[in-house]
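User: Batch of two.

Assistant: Item 1 of 2:
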Amino acid sequence: MSSAARSAGPDQQVMTDSADGPLAQEATRIVLRPIASPLPLGFLALFVGSLLVSALQLHWVPVAQRHEIAIGVLALTVPLQLIACLYGFLCRDVVASTGLGLLGGTWAVLGVTSLTTPPQATSPGLGILLVVAAGALLVPTVAALHSKVVAAVLLALAAVRFAITGGYELTSAPGWQYASGICGVVVAGLALYAALAAEVDSATRRNLLPLLRPESGQRAVSGRLTDQTQTLPREAGVRQQL
C-alpha cells in the first residue's frame, strides 16, 4: 500500500492513502520566522519626538521654529513608531505593538496640528483628543506590567505627558505647558535608557541593563523554545477566529 502527499497551502500538508482514498493523516505546520526586536526603534523614536516637543514647550527654541519641529515629528517619530508597531505584531507582542501604535497616532495628530494652526494657539478639541489618547495608553500600560516593567512605566509617563498637554490645550494656562515640557524631558530620558537596554539585550543576549522583567517576562527571554511555542495553536493568526 503506497501513500501520497499533496500540498494544502504554504504551511499545511495533508496525507492521503492513494489506494483506499480516505483521509489518513492531517498535519499543520506553524512556521516561526525570527525577527529583530522593534522596541529599540520605537523607544528611540519616542525619545526624539518627546524631546523635540519639549524643546518647543520650554522655549528652548523660538516659536517660529514650530513648523520645523512638527516636520521632524511627522517625518521621523511617526513612521518609525508605526514600523515598530507593525513588527511588534509580527513578533507576537500585542502589548508593545498596541502602545507604539497609539503613540505614533498621537504624535501624528500633534504634528499636523502644529503645522496647521497659528503659533501659541490652543484647541479644546485637540485637548480632549489628547486626554482620551492618554486614557487609551493605560490599556497597554497595565498589560505591560506582567512582562516589561520599564516599558510599562514609560507608557504611563507618556500618557501623563499627553494628559498634561491636553490640559494646556483646554485651559491655555502656561503652567500646564511648562509641566508638559518637563514631563516630556523625563519621558525622553527614560525612553533613551529603555532603548539602550533593549538594544544591548538583543545584541549581546545578556541582560546588562535591567528592564525589570517579572518572572513571566524573564522566561520569555531565557526560557526554552518549547515553553514559548506550546500555546501557538491558540494565538491570533493561527486560530480560526480572533
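Item 2 of 2:
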Amino acid sequence: EYWGFKKIHGKIWLHVYLSNIPIDAQGLMSRMRISKALASMSLNELLEHEVLIRGPLSESGTRTYLSNPEITNVIKKIIRSREKVMMNKIQSAFQSLNGLSAKELEEHYLDLKQIKKMSALMKKGNKLLEAVMKII
C-alpha cells in the first residue's frame, strides 16, 4: 500500500506467485471469491506495473498469468516511478511556501529559518533518491 498498491493487488500477486501452474482469472475469482470486474481491473493494473506477466493460454483458451520472475526489476521500476513522483509532489507542495510574504509566514506561525533547513533537507533527500535510483 505504501507504493500505491491496493490490498487486492497483494492478494492476487500472492496467489499467482505461490501457484505451481499459470493461473487464469476464473481460477483467481473462485479461489479468492472476487468479482470478474475486480479480477479484471486488478490483473490489468498488475500487468501494467509488470508485477505479473501474461502466461500461455489454458486448455480452455483463457489467458493465464504468472508472477514476473524478475522481481528485482519490478521493485526497481516501482521505486523509480513511484518514489520519484512522490518526491516531486512533496517538493512542489513545499515550493508554495517560497511565495509567502514575511507577513503571511508570521500569520501562519512559520519560521523562515526552519523552512530553509527543510528545503536543504529535501534537496539532500532528492540527491539520495537519485543516487539510489542510479545504483539500482
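The first strand starts at residue 23 and ends at 24.
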